[in-house]
Design a protein that fits this description.
- Helices cover about 40% and strands about 20% of the residues.
- It has three domains: about 70 residues, Winged helix-like DNA-binding domain superfamily/Winged helix DNA-binding domain (Arc Repressor Mutant, subunit A, Orthogonal Bundle), CATH 1.10.10.10; about 110 residues, D-Maltodextrin-Binding Protein, domain 2, CATH 3.40.190; about 100 residues, D-Maltodextrin-Binding Protein, domain 2, CATH 3.40.190.10.
- Strands 3, 4, 5, 6, 7, 10, 11, 12 and 13 form a nine-stranded mixed sheet that branches. The chain has a two-stranded antiparallel sheet with strand order 1-2. Strands 8-9 form a two-stranded parallel sheet.
Amino acid sequence: MTLTQLQYIIAVDTHRHFGRAAESCFVTQPTLSMQLHKLEDELGLVLFNRSKQPVEPTEIGKKIIAQARIVLSEAEKIEQQAQAATGDISGVFKLGIIPTVAPNLIYRFINNFKNQLGDVQLIIEEMHTEQIIKNLYNNDIDAAILATPLEEKGIEEIPLYYEPFMAFVPDGHRLAKDDFVLCSELDIEDLLLLNKGHCFRNSVIKICQQNKEKEANMKLESGNFDTLMRLAKLGYGMTLIPYLTAIDLHDSEKKFIKAVAEPTPSREISLVYASSNVKWAILEKLAPIIRASVPKRLLFEKNEVITPM
């Protein structure tokens, strides 16, 4: 039994497909399949039900895969301890990030990360909060950037910054002439929302203090802020966007941005990781790199933090 074989069975469990599992391990599918057969022969057990699509682990396979995750995590601690002792930080670091943060944050810190941690292969993937939590528990990613607090057992949070919500109010809207927007003026029927699955959407609904969404004559939702702002300019309402999204807009768009009056709703953005995480050397450097990349005004909690879940 080898650590590589354990890595392969975890990959198959994660992807539920031999081809994608092999690709994620940077080997051919025949190589991966051969090693899995060797491991099964050695154990005298069948780990996966190959007749099902997607592939599923057998009952005993589930138990062995869970133990394999523990074994690989413990083995990795040896490498991480050696790196901490020598100061030689390298390896792969998988980072998840929610879609409402990624476009306006990654480009801000990526160069400094490469300059300070040039020997680390950083793999960034956008995913929703629920998927991030699952991947952290399964050790499929090393850390993530998302809105908190999550209050998930076994997951640690390092607050990075606090991002106010801004109102995008187009010409002709009932609030267009106001200098700022009151939370009490926000109407869920008048707000363009992100699709379900985005925690930012949940926070906006909480701000409106609605127990449930009303049915409007026309409900327009999208997976990104650009579409929502375009729809707003066509006269379909207004929307709320994060501060970093607002300041990255072209000057012609910034004229539609209005502050939300105090107490200003905001979201806490944190670096989160599983308690069992062993890549402390990278985590300790990543947090300050990200903090240094955002406006200093966002580093202090002075607004009303809206929980994302």
